[in-house]
C-alpha cells in the first residue's frame, strides 16, 4: 500500500536576523534539539525559531528503493538484519557491538579502507515505563525524536570532526590525495514497525544552498555547527511507511568528493496516519567516519 501523506515538518523560520547573525542554541544539558525556547534570567538560550511547514511526504514503497542512493539522493534504504535479535541496546556492551556491526556493514557497503563508528544513540518517544528499572547511565544514551529539520554537520565542521577522530598515523595515511572521506548515518526502528514519529528525509538534489542555515550548538565544554533548514516548495520529502527493523535507512552527512550528494536533511514528524494507540517510536542510529579510495 502506497502512503503519500500531507504532514507538518518543522523548519527554520526565514528571519532577517539570520542574514547578519548565525542562529545559536546554548545547551547546558542534554543532546537533542529539545531546548528551543528555553531562557535563563530573562536571557534567551538560543535564537532558533522554528515554524511549521506543510509538505507532501512521498512513500518510498511506492517509488521504489532503487531510485534513491547515498551517491545521488543523499539517502537510501537497504535490507539489513541486525545480529542483535532482541533489539535491546540498553547495555553499553550491546551498543558497542552494534557499533562494530555498523563498521562491518560500511566496510562492505562502500568498500572502505577504514571505518570508525564514533557514536551510537537511542531515541524514544513518550513517557518512561514507571516499572522500568532506573539506569541513569543507559538513559544518558537516549534522546527524544530530533526536533527540527536539520543536517548533522556543516562543510566547516566535518573536516574538524574527521581530524579529531583519526590518529596521527591515520592522518598521514588517509588525509592525502587519492582518498575520499564520508560521514554517514544509519537509522533503524526497534519496534515491529514505525508509525509514531517516523523519519522524513529530503532528496538532496531538491535542496538549494540557500535553504541551509549555519547554526551554532554550544555546550559547556565544546561547540559545533550544524545546518538548520528553511522550507522551499522545490524540496522533495520522503518516508518509508511502516518501516521495520530489517529496513535500514542510510544518510549522508558529509562527503569530501564534490559532485556527489554531500548531505541529507532529515527529521522526525507527526504521522497523520498513526492510530492513537500506535506503539511509541524506538530507534537506534549511528554516526560513522568512512575512508575509501577515490
Indicate the proportion of strand residues. 25-35%
> What structural class do helix, strand and pairing data support?
alpha+beta
**Helical content band:** 10-25%
Question: What separation lies between the terminal Cα atoms?
Answer: 40 Å
CATH class: Mainly Beta
| Major beta sheet, strand line-up | 6-15-10-17-7-8
* Major β-sheet profile: 6 strands, mixed
Outline, from the CA principal axes?
globular
Rg value: 19 Å
- Please state the average pLDDT score: 90
Oligomer: single chain
Give the number of helices: 5
β-strand number = 17
The CATH topology name reads: Jelly Rolls
InterPro entries: AsaB-like
GO molecular function: oxidoreductase activity
Protein name: Methyltransferase
Organism: Immersiella caudata
Amino acid at each position: 500500500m502506497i502512503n503519500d501523506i500531507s504532514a507538518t515538518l518543522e523548519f527554520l523560520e526565514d528571519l532577517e536576523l539570520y542574514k547578519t547573525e548565525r542562529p545559536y542554541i546554548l545547551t547546558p544539558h542534554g543532546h537533542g534539539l529539545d531546548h528551543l525556547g528555553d531562557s535563563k534570567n530573562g536571557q534567551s538560550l538560543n535564537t532558533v525559531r522554528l515554524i511549521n511547514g506543510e509538505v507532501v511526504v512521498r512513500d518510498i514503497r511506492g517509488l521504489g528503493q532503487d531510485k534513491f542512493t547515498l551517491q545521488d539522493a543523499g539517502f537510501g534504504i537497504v535490507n539489513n538484519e541486525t545480529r542483535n535479535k532482541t533489539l535491546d541496546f540498553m547495555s553499553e556492551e550491546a551498543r558497542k557491538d552494534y557499533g562494530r556491526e555498523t563498521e562491518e556493514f560500511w566496510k562492505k557497503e562502500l568498500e572502505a579502507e577504514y571505518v570508525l563508528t564514533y557514536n551510537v544513540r537511542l531515541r524514544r518517544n513518550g513517557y518512561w515505563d514507571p516499572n522500568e528499572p532506573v539506569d541513569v547511565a543507559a538513559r544518558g544514551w537516549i534522546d527524544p525524536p530530533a526536533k527540527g529539520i536539520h543536517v548533522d554537520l556543516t562543510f566547516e565542521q566535518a573536516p574538524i570532526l574527521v581530524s579529531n577522530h583519526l590518529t596521527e598515523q591515520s592522518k598521514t595515511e588517509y588525509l592525502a590525495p587519492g582518498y575520499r572521506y564520508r560521514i554517514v548515518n544509519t537509522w533503524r526502528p526497534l519496534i515491529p514497525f514505525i508509525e509514531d514519529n517516523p523519519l522524513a528525509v529530503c532528496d538532496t538534489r531538491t535542496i538549494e544552498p540557500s535553504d541551509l542555515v549555519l547554526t551554532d550548538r554550544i555546550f559547556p565544554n565544546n561547540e559545533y555547527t550544524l545546518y538548520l533548514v528553511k522550507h522551499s516548495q522545490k524540496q522533495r520529502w520522503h518516508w518509508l511507511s511502516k518501516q521495520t527493523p530489517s529496513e535500514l535507512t542510510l544518510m549522508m552527512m558529509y562527503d569530501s568528493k564534490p559532485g556527489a550528494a554531500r548531505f541529507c536533511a532529515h527529521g522526525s514528524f507527526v504521522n497523520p496516519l498513526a492510530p492513537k494507540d500506535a506503539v511509541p517510536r524506538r530507534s537506534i542510529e549511528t554516526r560513522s567516519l568512512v575512508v575509501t579510495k577515490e
